[in-house]
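Minutes, project check-in
Item: structure for the 284-residue chain
Input as provided by the requester:
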Amino acid sequence: MTRSTEVPLYWAKYGPPGLRRLLVLHGGPGAHHDYLLPQLLTLGTLDGGRELLFYDQRGGGRSRTDDRQPITWRTHVNDLGAVIREFGLDRPVVVGYSWGGLLALLYASEAARDASLPKPGSLVLIDPAAISRHYRAEFENEFSRRQASPGVERLRAQLAESRLRETDLPAYRSRVFELSVVGYFADPRSAHDLTPFRVTARVQQSVWESLGDFDLAADGRLATIDAPTLIVHGRQDPIPLASSERAAEIMRAELAVLENCGHVPYVEQPRALFAAIEPFLRTH
């Protein structure tokens, strides 16, 4: 557990120990890091090998807290700064997935204006969450549409008719989870063999509420970030590709668009994902 954050945060390291490290931010908010495993451990094998540092963000996973004070985006930004300092990460490479990608952007923009926050060296954003309330509304509408589509309804009906609940309860629960997230995938058939996760609903709600009517493009935040950045985005991600395109345009970041891929590239298109990331790591 961390010692320098306001509440202790669970952390874990993977891969060869050493000075070459990646700090990985999971999605959510209110989730935990281990649903990215084992697939994202491949990051540790790129560019000659790197140590991966994950932590469960406050309020989720093994970093849950009984404190009922609202957890906001600023809470997460301050925690991230404390983690970077505690582990002695000098201008680290920060890899953010989904909400973790948006957190990386919020942190980098705050660090550009607040000398007390250590600056990141570079950013790798994997299907980052929408950069504005408008784009987030587009995502929510598209995800709901997919979850209610005839194809997904057929998958639910097939599960109900399978009697799997009576014959193999763990397998049934795993399939229920897969169907709850199938709208994230370009091809619903790809939603299998996933590591289940839970989201602490009150944390998720309080973080999004704290962002208000946010727009990181219009409010100038993205323009303050000077860290070299790679954005990887699946073309069929329910989060609009336009969100990442706009961020890349403002930040002059590299943008890699993965074909036949939704929001979970480490499952849907792992070779293309890591092929896009490795040369960026080698350069930065």
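Outcome recorded: The chain has two domains: 11-138+198-283, 139-190.
No further action items on this chain.
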